[in-house]
Design brief:
103 residues; alpha/beta; Trna Endonuclease, Chain: A, domain 1
Length: 103
């Protein structure tokens, strides 16, 4: 399956004993809600594809810290993330560092 992810990317890696894939999202459009709808749908599609092709790999959605703190803290968004069992990776855009892994 070819995944067209444009300027953003999906990365396969190892984290300790875990094999992971990370879908990196920037949330830079004028509408964070639209960005979230797109990211949510893509995340689910990628997770289903990985279940068929690489079931041992764990998928994370990477989001910038400022988006996590301001948008993902909203009650509705938080519930969607929990219900959809989305694992998050919070990164610092300027420092290019991972700040938090949320399972």
């Amino acid at each position: 399956m070819y995944i067209d992810i444009g300027a953003e990317q999906i990365i396969g890696a190892d984290r300790g004993n875990d094999r992971i894939a990370v879908e990196v999202k920037s949330f830079i459009s004028p509408s964070r809600v639209s960005d979230f709808h797109l990211a949510h749908g893509q995340f689910l599609d990628y997770r289903y594809a990985l279940e068929d092709t690489d079931p041992e790999r764990i998928l994370y959605l990477a989001v910038p810290r400022f988006v996590y703190q301001t948008f993902f803290s909203l009650a509705f968004i938080s519930r969607v993330v929990q219900r959809s069992q989305i694992k998050l990776l919070v990164y610092d855009l300027e420092q290019e560092t991972i700040e938090q892994w949320i399972k």
